[in-house]
Amino acid sequence: MTADALPIRIAPSILSADFARLGEEVRAIQAAGADLVHFDVMDNHYVPNLTIGPLVCQAIRPHVTIPIDVHLMVEPVDALVPMFAKAGANIITFHPEASRHVDRTLALIRDQGCQAGLVFNPATPLEWMDDVMDKLDMVLLMSVNPGFGGQSFIESAIDKLKRARTRLDAYAARTGRRIALEIDGGVKVENIARIAQAGADTFVAGSAVFGAPDADGGYRTIMNKLKSAAQAGT
Fold this sequence. Notes:
Helix content: 25-40%
CATH class: Alpha Beta
CATH architecture: Alpha-Beta Barrel
Order of helices and strands: EHEHEHEHEEHEHEHH
Distance between the termini: 5 Å
Largest sheet: 8 strands, parallel
Shape: globular
Number of domains: 1
Number of helices: 8
CATH superfamily: Aldolase class I
Strand content: 15-25%
Structural class: alpha/beta
């Protein structure tokens, strides 16, 4: 990791958590060293699945002090932004194809006091980010097709990460401002070093975390393994 690079962050996705014990689960991942809570919102319209909304975000907010990272897999986007901001979201990302006016949606998120980001599906071109970098705090690359947890990592995401990293490094060199590069989908202890080497600094892990609790019901062992392996790749 270079001196000006952003730190490695692990963002467990509660899509893989036990929803009957959600408050307990998010407290456990924070205690284990999670840096963010990743919150997947699916609308059965933009993606073929239906998950959770602002009320669940509001419910878990008192249980953690780490940021809540909301990934909107919805269409349209803008109406939900103020609702999630009010519910306690800290970061809101969305898919550019789902917004009529990407620049306006990014500005709306920031106006609500949240960090803003774009999400790129495996086949979505990175050019969407080029004209709005001044409004980006995060870029999220999907290494699976969105809609379901537990999918396998798509290998072409490695090359796409490298290309995104080049774009973001060039922007940082011009402006002095760093934009986080997040990866989501099939991240495991076995591949996180390669993913970090390709340029990611923030790693969403769902089943890899929630499927490997410690004997005492916590997640510290798997969190330490993920962070150590990611650090080894930088």
